[in-house]
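User: What would this chain look like folded?
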Amino acid sequence: MIPYTDLLYFAILIGLTLCAVALAVAGRLSWRSVVALNAAMLVIQYAGRTNAGMLDIWVVAAYGLYEWRLASLFLRLRRARNSRPIFLTCVTLALLPLIGVRLAALRGGTGYLAFTGISYVTFRSVDVIICIQDKLIASIAPAGYFTFLLFFPTVSAGPIDRYTRFAKDASRSRTRGEFFRDLDAAVQLVFRGLLYKFILAALVKQYWMDRVSEGAQVATVASYMYAYTCYLFFDFAGYSAFAVGVSYLLGIHTPPNFDRPFLAGNIAEFWNRWHISLSTWFRDHVYMRFVMAAVRGRWFASRLAISCAALYVTFMLMGIWHGLSLRYVTYGLYHGTLLSGHAIFVERRKNRQRSPPTPLWKIASVIITFHCVALGFLIFSGRLG
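Assistant: Here's the prediction, encoded as structure tokens.
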């Protein structure tokens, strides 16, 4: 059963959300109710898949138990002393299931640990380990941890939430007025998801992308590049709108994933608007930590060199996170190059006196950024090789 795609999934989801709304209106939608509804939907979602049957739900359960035991063990060790080798070992162990799945995919298999959403769930588990290291988490309740890790509205493809933010929402009680404000926002997001995913993305795919999916002519490839860019946005933004909207009904304010990304005036601004939960996760947990370590260790001669190296490392890892195929690695290197070039450009212009950008310059910047991004998506799609 594919979330936010199958008609059966929506039928079950409507029943579950009506139950949640009824409980909320009656003032009885407690955290325990959310935990129970989440567990029920996970069982339906994974056990209802025709290709795997009950196997998936047992794999998901085993994965969740493994990550919870690892986080609990690290929490006890962190209380005793601060050991960087132990921290890095726990991060590696948290990543181990995903690494196994990626290596199995490289050999043409899927691996026994594979399940829909493992890429996104893994980043939540690593977030918990990092928060424990930074002393942002003092305790881990099993029910809260499992619900955060496997929150059904976002389990398959994000957005990637943070444990500390999620826990704050989980611990607060909504007033009647707050619930109706969340309900209003949820309805708007769900209808946006319907428009984006089932109307705009479907039209782009059927009448544009599929028709230019073959052929090596420059015009055909260029047309596919634009079509794929539009399709990817409407499909993914539509899915994200569904995920965030359903989260709101359950009292969890999952952060948005998109903010008009194609209006960005440069590549750095684009990554502040596109797949926001992923880009901020990498910024906080990879980029910033690399920069701090490089500054302390004096690995490079200048801050600019540190920033550029951090960008390459960050986006290389982001590419590998999508998969070990050459197109994903190339995609990561491509964006690392764009962002490093932008950082160098900004640094060189920093001390120069210049007039405010004209409207024409702003429009040109948006157009150039869009085409750089679209070329990256063409690489990502695998159409070039």
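Residues 7-171 form one domain. If you want, I can go into more detail on any region.
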